[in-house]
Amino acid sequence: MESTCVRIAIDAMGGDHAPGEIVAGALRAREELGVEVLLVGDPQQIEAALPSKTNLGQIEIVSATEAIAMDEEPLSAIRRKPKASINVAMNLVKNKQADGVVSAGHSGAAMAAALLRLGRLPGIDRPAIGAVFPTLIASKPVLILDVGANVDCRPKFLEQFAVMGSIYSEYVLGTSDPKVGLLNIGEEDSKGNDAAVRANQMLRENSQISFIGNAEGRDVLSGRFDVIVCDGFVGNVLLKFAEAVGDIVLQILREELPQGLRGQIGSAILKPNLKRIKQRVDHAEHGGGLLLGVAGICIIGHGSSQAPSIFNAIRIAKEAVDNSVLQRIQSQYQNQSLQQESSQ
């Protein structure tokens, strides 16, 4: 690419609030993060969503004449609609015209498009969606994966998730020697079903990661772990439960703090503190999940994403590009393959 600036393709037609909120978040990212955004979708709808004073010469719109609805079967829709916005966005990455994709549309369609058009990284059997959660320790997030890409997982898949998650945690989240846990029903290595016991053993024997044992549900947000692996069924339930808890906490604060004169005065005094609380527990601040394991940067946002979430999703994509996450994962597995060949 001619420019060294990070270029992110945005699925402008994906999500409950497309294209208006998607476009607003992308424009904010363009201004504050210095990224180039490629708005992919129906040009007329995208232009109608732009602020009235926007200079169209400074906005790059890539035409896509189709879109995939939330109720469509993902794989068949991807194949039936080659000009869907998510397909066009993935092709931009495949053809080196963009460094990454952000979509708040059909998550299954985004994953299918990524697999079909970008393919898996060598050595990776299944991609995983990683989501960042806040913990009790400020500025110490935990990365959970998988949160929806794979309903059922073999122990080998969980081991690969742990390796990819550790790389992401170290180089993007800035965690030194990330501590890995396996989500389970007890701390003891013997707890859980046969798959969990075998996964525990494989993780413990893997020298590429710092595995410290099983993580129970109460440990997820404790700050003890930096990376926690699980199958996508459990991970998706956990993700949506955590989001609901965060929404409830924020709603309770809004309702209860302003009660009475003392509450109104206190709310005014505590406004900076409340803003920090929101930043820690509001899932909109985390933007979405990075699809790890495919040969391209792909951020899958919530279907209900509004402008702040889209902005943060683009930020995550930029950080993944800047920190060479794909190259580091690929290098890790290439080194592992060489070691296995030399030992034979």
Give a count of the beta strands, DSSP E runs of length 2 or more. Answer: 11
Rg for CA atoms: 21 Å
Distance between the termini: 41 Å
Averaged pLDDT: 87
In helices, the fraction of residues equals 40-55%
> What is the overall silhouette?
globular
The largest pleated sheet is described as: 11 strands, mixed
Poorly predicted runs: none
Q: Helix/strand-derived class?
A: alpha/beta
Biggest sheet, strands in spatial order? Answer: 3-2-1-4-11-10-5-6-9-7-8
The fraction of residues in strands falls at: 5-15%
Tally of DSSP helical segments = 12
Encode the helix/strand succession as letters.
Answer: EHEHEHHEHEEHEHEEHHHEEHH
Which oligomeric form is depicted? single chain
How would you describe this structure to a colleague?
The chain is α/β, with parallel strands linked by helices and 344 residues long. 46% of the residues lie in helices and 15% in strands. Helix 7 (194-205) links the parallel strand 7 and strand 8. The chain is globular. Pathway: Lipid metabolism; phospholipid metabolism. Homodimer. Probably interacts with PlsY. InterPro entries: FA_synthesis, Phospholipid_synth_PlsX-like. Belongs to the PlsX family.
Compile the SSE list and pairings.
Layout: E1 7-11, H1 20-33, E2 36-41, H2 43-49, E3 60-63, H3 74-80, H4 85-94, E4 100-103, H5 107-117, E5 128-133, E6 142-145, H6 155-171, E7 179-183, H7 194-205, E8 210-215, E9 227-229, H8 232-256, H9 260-269, H10 271-281, E10 289-292, E11 297-300, H11 307-322, H12 325-343
Parallel strand pairs: 1-2, 1-4, 2-3, 4-11, 6-9, 7-8, 7-9
Antiparallel strand pairs: 5-6, 5-10, 10-11
Helix pairs in contact: 1-11, 3-5, 4-5, 6-7, 8-10
